[in-house]
Amino acid sequence: MAERHHSGLLAIWISLISNIVLTIMKVAAGLLLGSPVLLADGVHNAGDIIATVAALTSSMVSKKPADEDHPYGHGKAEVVASAFVSIVLIIAALWIALQSIAALFDPEGGESWLALGAAALSLVWKQGLYIYTLRVGKATNSKSVLATAYDHLADVYASLAAVIGIGIGLLGEHYGWSWGVYGDPVAGIIVSALVLKLGWEIGHEAVNILMERNVSQEKLAKYEALIIGIEPIKRIDRVRAREHGHYITVDVRVGVPGDFTIQHGHDISRMIKQRIMEADSDVIEVMVHLNPWYAK
Q: How high is the pLDDT of residue 127?
């Protein structure tokens, strides 16, 4: 668990440093080259710095052990950060949409090859960060790292829009296409819809976890199959599980012969916990309740 947490922290630190560098590069290039789309992309990246800091902070908090005030641990700090990232993405999407709609009525044109190069560099850089953080997020089951990965994906969309918009503008100038100046704002509107959808999906997932939604039916079926294979257990009364950020807690109710001793019950509970935790490394706690079962 400690190694997985270290991998997640490293991924977020790399993302934070990258976002700072890219923000400075895009804002400077946008101002020097007079590229509004690149400047807008840089401002969007500045919002990513805030989101990444939130993810980093939550990841550090989530590793704290359970205490008297937080008996289930601090894992949901990552979920809170994930919800925060979704808000940043939704605000960024609305801002990009407003800027793009305004540009439709007042297209500036005059695109630069250097601006195109800066946007292309950002696109490649962010795509690499997205792939890296997505792999780490899935390997560590870290909600904050996954949220950071999807934040990078939103930046990929924004940088792609900048590349397409600047590229169409340059082609329009070269071939005399009067409609070329509209390439950037149209691409921006399309990207804003994609980023908005992404932000909504991340927020929806975070809210479901905070509202104690059950884990997937596939996971529950897996737990039930492990439990029913234990010979003394006569029936499964209930199995439920919930996520706490990067880990899961499971609640089990089963029926065992009513004449079993306390020692028998203890051994069965221990066996259930051991089987589930060995089969799913994300599970850190299994709470077992035994109900008496009689043949009649």
A: 92
